[in-house]
């Protein structure tokens, strides 16, 4: 994946800058963007794709050794965000971090890495840091939840997070065995426990929701699932939606993202979500695959086209 990704990302920046600002919709729509060439280049890519929000990694998602961010890079990110009216900036935590780990060594590594994630997010002026609640293999689910809550508290101890409205967002999981956060109740419980420790809310991924077994596809199912979300996490506590179609069937627990409108979810549920008055405060970010050059543009355009004028 990285090869095509990097190529696509470099190709976008090789093109001449657009002469007029890209057309936007009434909703904030963006995509997970490559940081090839430096994290600050992600803002330029997002703008050229016609986004007014985006997500990125602030370090390699599969390596413990963190990127060293310079002050110049952080200042450039803030300048581009301002110039292009990009908000919110969302950072996705590295996949290696597991704050519910049953292994002491892994848990300590995860706590240190998560603290560095928070520090980089603040340095870049990000508003949200998305975190997978982790895997509790070797523990009971309850022990896993408690461990995750303690680890997040320890990782953010003595950091000033209240400034600039920064929040950690717990993302719902696809339902793989031992993963925390596969149900809305689990996400809600973690958010509730952490509330006294740090500013926290949730990120809901449409693919994870669908493969975890919730119905967002039929109109009645969508209504039911939204009410369920309201009664557990609370829709106002969901500032970010990850908009991904799914390759696998509902309730399959298989986390395979698909292009918008080309998977087992289809276009209509995204149209409902993007025009739902109850999500008007939220931003929508695709984490769709790149199979062909231009796929990022195609998926951003697909989401934007669904927003009623
Ligand atoms: Zn995620
Ligand atoms: Zn996601």
Could you walk me through the main structural features you see in this protein, from its secondary elements to its overall organization?
Helix 2 (41-48) runs parallel beside helix 3 (71-84) and helix 5 (141-155) packs parallel to helix 6. Strand 5 (167-171), helix 6 and strand 6 form a beta-alpha-beta unit. The protein has ten helices and ten strands. Strands 1-2-3-4-5-6-7-10 form an eight-stranded parallel beta barrel, surrounded by four helices. Strands 8-9 form a two-stranded antiparallel sheet. It is an alpha/beta fold and 309 residues long. The chain is globular. The two termini are 35 Å apart. The protein has one domain (2-12, 24-306): TIM Barrel. It binds zinc ion (ZN) (2 copies). The site of one zinc ion (ZN) has 4 residues, from loops.
Provide tags for this entry.
309 residues, alpha/beta, TIM Barrel, 10 helices, globular, binds zinc ion
Please sum up the structure shown.
By secondary structure, the protein is α/β, with parallel strands linked by helices. The chain has helices at residues 2-14, 41-48, 71-84, 104-123, 141-155, 184-194, 206-211, 219-232, 267-274, 295-306; strands at residues 28-32, 53-56, 89-92, 128-132, 167-171, 200-205, 240-243, 245-246, 257-258, 283-286.
């Amino acid at each position: 994946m990285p090869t095509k990704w990097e190529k696509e990302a470099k190709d976008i920046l090789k093109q001449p800058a657009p002469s007029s600002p890209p057309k936007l919709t009434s909703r904030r729509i963006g995509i997970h963007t490559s940081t090839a060439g430096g994290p600050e280049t992600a803002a330029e890519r997002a703008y050229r794709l016609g986004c007014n929000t985006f997500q990125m990694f602030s370090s390699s998602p599969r390596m413990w050794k963190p990127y060293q961010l310079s002050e110049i890079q952080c200042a450039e990110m803030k300048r581009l965000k301002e110039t292009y009216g990009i908000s919110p900036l969302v950072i996705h935590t590295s996949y290696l971090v597991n704050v519910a780990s049953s292994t002491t060594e892994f848990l300590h590594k995860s706590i240190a890495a998560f603290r560095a994630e928070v520090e980089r997010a603040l340095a870049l002026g990000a508003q949200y840091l998305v975190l997978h609640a982790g895997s509790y293999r070797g523990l009971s689910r309850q022990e896993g939840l408690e461990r995750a809550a303690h680890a997040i508290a320890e990782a953010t101890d003595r950091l000033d997070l209240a400034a600039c409205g920064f929040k950690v967002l717990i993302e719902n999981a696809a339902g793989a065995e031992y993963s925390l956060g596969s149900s809305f109740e689990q996400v809600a419980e973690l958010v509730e426990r952490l509330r006294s420790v740090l500013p926290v809310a949730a990120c809901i991924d449409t693919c994870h929701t669908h493969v975890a077994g919730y119905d967002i596809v039929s109109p009645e199912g969508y209504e039911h699932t939204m009410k369920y979300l309201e009664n557990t996490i609370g829709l106002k506590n969901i500032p970010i939606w990850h908009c991904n179609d799914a390759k696998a069937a509902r309730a399959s627990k298989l986390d395979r993202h698909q292009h918008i409108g080309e998977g087992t979810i289809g276009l209509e549920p995204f149209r409902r979500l993007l025009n739902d008055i109850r999500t008007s405060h939220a931003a929508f970010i695709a984490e769709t695959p790149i199979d062909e050059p231009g796929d990022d543009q195609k998926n951003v355009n697909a989401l934007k086209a669904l927003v009623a004028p």
